[in-house]
Amino acid sequence: MRMRLWTAVGMLVVAGAVVAVAQERPRREGRPDRAALQAELGLSADQTAQLEKLRVEGRKQAIRQRADLAIARLELAELMDAPTVDEKAVAAKVKVISDLQAAGLKARTDERLAMRRLLTPEQQEKMKQLMRQHRQERGRRPERAGRQRGQGEPPVPEPPR
Hints:
Elements: H1 2-24, H2 34-41, H3 45-81, H4 87-118, H5 121-138
């Protein structure tokens, strides 16, 4: 009984610490502050509202698309793990996955184009400068350090002999 009590107390302490740390970080590290960005670009209240609506709708769509893609990949794994592989079903599932990936790219591109239409040419240029500056300050991401544009995945090291 005492052991359960101490375990429960320990779990509450850990949970409290996690909540406290989460509350100390209001935004993810490396992301520009949206309010500062809006002020620096000189966005009107209407532009800000429209951009926020686009962002929220885009996030919703991306979440749905990622879920559909994850399910399709699981289904492909099931097909591949079957005792006898139905190659036509595998090819069809690969096409579904490919179509979902293409739809995600199109949705992201459409969202960026819609955002550009909301900005004046001066705001677009300022946004480009700010994004360039942000990338330089942030530097290269460690997980992508071995990759260059257009070259795909980094080479797999050979196993030791």
